[in-house]
Amino acid sequence: MMFFTRDCRAHHLVLALVCLLIPSSLLAFQGSPSLSVSPGPFRIAGTIISSTSGTPLARARVTIGDTKNLQRRQWMITGDDGRFEFNQIAASKYSLQGAKKGFISAGYDEHEQFSTAIVTGAGMDTEHLIFRLAPSAVLTGRVLDESGEPVRRANVNLYSEDRRTGVSRIIRINSDVTDDRGSFEFAELDSSAYFLSVSATPWYALHPVAGRPEGAENVVTMVDRSLDVAYPMTFYANATESDEATPIPLRGGDRIQLDIHVNPAPALHLLFRVANSQGDAISMPQLQKRTFDTADWVQPGGTMQMLSPGLVEITGVAAGRYFVGNQNASGDSAPQSAEVELSENGQELQIPTSEPPASIKASVHVVGASQLPQQLMLVLRNAKQRPVAFQQVNPQGEVEFLDVAPGQYTLMAATANKPYSVLRMSSEGTALGHALNIQAGSSVTLAISLIGGEGNVEGFAKRDGKPVAGAMIVLVPKNPESNRELFRRDQSDLDGSFSLRSVIPGLYTVVAIENGWDLDWSEPGVIAHYCQHGREIQVSDRAEGPIHLDSAVEVQAK
Q1: H/E run at residue 537
Q2: Are 206 and 228 in contact (CB under 8 A)?
Q3: Is the pLDDT of residue 281 over 50?
Q4: Report for 28-32, 335-339, 378-382: range of highest mean pLDDT
Q5: Cβ neighbour number for residue 335 with a 10 Å cutoff
Q6: Cβ-count burial of 557 within 10 angstroms (0-12 exposed, 13-18 middle, 19+ buried)?
Q7: 344 vs 28, which has greater pLDDT?
Q8: For the chain, what is the radius of gyration of the CA atoms?
Q9: Three-state SS letters, 87-139
Q10: Lowest-pLDDT choice from 15-19, 477-481, 517-521
Q11: Residue 38, helix vs strand vs coil
Q12: Among 171-185, 242-256, 417-431, 449-463, where is mean pLDDT lowest?
């Protein structure tokens, strides 16, 4: 069963699209596989415990909610023995959630945005549940300079692994700014491995310019070299490149305090030869620094100024590897230019003329629909499967993307409640595949046919004929490399049942994997092994109602 946690809430459509078009929690709770009808009543009871120590949790709040009627909710506070008990419960499916101060609020057997629903009915043991909550961890520390003094107003970034798109990526999840004691804090952290980076500027640094721009006054042209310094972006512990960073493992209940030392290095004065991009407009140079699986813009500690036509000086840059180029007009944070080593003072680099941006204009219609759904969004996704731009389709079925950087893209579509897939795409009568190859300065006109996710695929996960709760269920499309938006996932409930929502018509394989939550499940080379023992299904565009698998999906070991 799927629900949204504090890490992936559907507060707006864009986040839902980033999370691979996961439907809303309302869809996740409705229309589950048929239950064994029994008059009842039943009881949901058990003990809520710490996942690390196994001790019962007193004063924990436990809530159940009928997944067919979200208004029917009950809650209670556990006693000293950690016991919870809900009586006179009808046969149905129930979400079970727990919360306690100092612990991570979670659903029963939660993994990412999924949990296991409690199924009441004949033959189901719902009275001896063990509900584990993980104690939250806290990571605190100080940023200190070369003299051991606190660094104020330093930017501290926290990174961790993310697998929601089916591929392991290290991404930034939080940030903080140090106070006057150089302190920072990240609280309510799950058990995981984390990374830290620090960006700061020495308070005493002075950066003279190599030349005095025409008309400029009071410009510093010479200072003591010991003052012309910069702090490199620093990763824990004492690394200046992310691939050399040391992971910080945290377990539930940990409270780790550590220091990050930043050390000054001679600041570089860099000269960039730039060319006019359009008319008299100048493409100003931009620096990016690789941070694990993405790149961050770097703000030099000194100045950026035009010394003469076509010559730009940047001061206050620490030596290191950078991506040097022009800011991507599409907003994509992934660098387009080559990574270069900046190591010499006065180093001169050539910034090429910016490639003129492209535009995409599309007419959109939905197959089988007389009119477009409200608030239909189209999302442009780059070659690394990252959304870089989004636009709402107007009532006339038109949408336009401006300032698109050259490159290869795919399109995703969805409303707040329903995902869509591109069925056909053509340009000036020529059929296209799934990918768009956008050339610099081009104006692309598209005709796009969408098909909505109407079908639900329901079934049971079992091993040796017995239901398995908590298994990861993956709906794998044919040709997964080019159809990543068609993947669907769920977690099997207490009776082994699962429901894969808003499935686009097509050919799929359903697999069930025990403890598979740390797999790169959208990587074709990884999931292919499990597909060999999965269930192939055909989802028709003429299907009415949910598709019920006629036999169970066998649960495979990771």
Answers
A1: strand 535-539
A2: yes
A3: yes
A4: 378-382
A5: 21
A6: exposed
A7: 344
A8: 28
A9: EEECCCEEEEEEECCCECCEECCCECCECCCEECCCCCCCCCEEEEECECEEE
A10: 15-19
A11: coil
A12: 417-431
Taking only the tens place, the pLDDT of each residue in 203-220 is 999 888 765 555 555 555
Whether the pLDDT of residue 498 is over 70: the answer is: yes
How far apart CA 128 and CA 70 sit, in angstroms, is 24
pLDDT value at position 317? 93
Give 313-330 pLDDT, tens digit per residue: 899 999 999 988 765 433
Between CA 320 and CA 296 the distance in angstroms is 14
DSSP 351: P
Q: How far apart are CA 29 and CA 35, in angstroms?
A: 14
| Non-local CB neighbours of 335 within 8 Å, separated by 6+ positions | 288, 290, 295, 323, 325
- What is the residue whose two structure tokens read 């493409």? 283
What is d(CA 419, CA 139) in angstroms, rounded to the nearest whole number?
A: 38
Side-chain half-sphere exposure of 396, counting CA atoms within 13 A: 5
Q: Please determine, for residue 421, whether its predicted confidence score (pLDDT) is greater than 90.
A: no
pLDDT band for 339, please (50, 70, 90 cuts).
confident
Maximum Cα–Cα distance for the chain, whole Å? 89
DSSP state at residue 212: -
Query: What backbone phi and psi angles, to 5 degrees, belong to 227?
Result: -95, -15
* Residue-level pLDDT at 333: 40
pLDDT of residue 121: 87
Structural tokens at position 392: 């709402």
DSSP string, 479-523: SGGG-GGG-EEEE--TTSEEEEEEEPSEEEEEEEEET-TTS-TT-
DSSP code of residue 550: S
Number of alpha helices (DSSP H) and beta strands (DSSP E) in the chain: 3, 46
Encoded amino acid at 50, one letter: S
With H, G, I as helix, E, B as strand and everything else as coil, classify residue 18: helix
Spatial distance between the Cα atoms of 120 and 33, rounded to a whole number of angstroms: 13
pLDDT tens column, 502-522 = 898 889 999 999 999 999 999
Structure confidence at residue 543 (pLDDT): 65
- pLDDT at res. 211: 57
Determine the Cα–Cα distance for residues 518 and 538; give it in Å rounded to an integer: 28
**How far, CA to CA in Å, does 4 sit from each of 23, 29, 115, 234?**
10, 11, 10, 34
Q: Which amino acid is present at 489?
A: R
Half-sphere exposure of 392 toward its Cβ, with a 13 Å CA cutoff?
Answer: 9
Q: How far apart are CA 500 and CA 23, in angstroms?
A: 10
Which runs of consecutive H residues, i.e. helices, occur in 314-394?
A: none
Residue entry with tokens 């196994």: 54
Query: Which residues partner with 184 through β-bridges?
Result: 141
All structural domains of the chain: 13-133 (2.60.40.10), 137-350 (2.60.40.1120), 358-452 (2.60.40.10), 455-557 (2.60.40.1120)
Tokens 């005493």, residue located: 204
